[in-house]
Amino acid sequence: MKALLEGPRVRLRALEPEDLSIMYTIENDTTTWDVCNLNVPYSYHVLKQYITDTQYDLYADKQLRLMIVRLSDGAVIGAIDLSNFEPFHSRAEVGIVILETYRGEGYATEALRLLCEYAFDFLNMNQLCAHVSMQNSRSMQLFQSCGFVQCGLLKQWWKVQGEYQDVLIMQQLRPNKRKI
Question: Could you tell me the pTM of the whole model?
Answer without folding.
Answer: 0.89
